[in-house]
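(Deposited chain)
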Amino acid sequence: VQLQAPGGGLVQAGGSLRLSCAVSGRTSSTYAWAWFRQAPGKERELVASFNRGGETDYEDSVKGRFTISSDNVRRTFYLQMNDVKPEDTGLYFCNVKEYLREAVWGQGTQVTVSS
């Protein structure tokens, strides 16, 4: 599996941005899809995820503002970010988990929220 996540960018506080992550390769072993972020000087943290059972999980500070979703036809999953805040600034990574294999990471895309 390979991941490609173009996009990111600069957005004003209160605005919206959608990140996308295109998935290629064999995905039959994939069981979880996620977005992580890493702010300057901080550790990488889980922002949102979903699994094959349809369960979603969100980091507390983004609940009600961010939504993770997927388009199986386009083989892409997304992170819709609404009402963004300066503290949402960071390098965002998409990630998938596969059975019996190492997790796969996208290359990271910068999101900067101006106040």
Summary: The chain has a mean pLDDT of 95. Residues 50 and 96 are 10 Å apart (CA to CA). DSSP finds no helices and eleven strands in the chain. The radius of gyration is 14 Å.
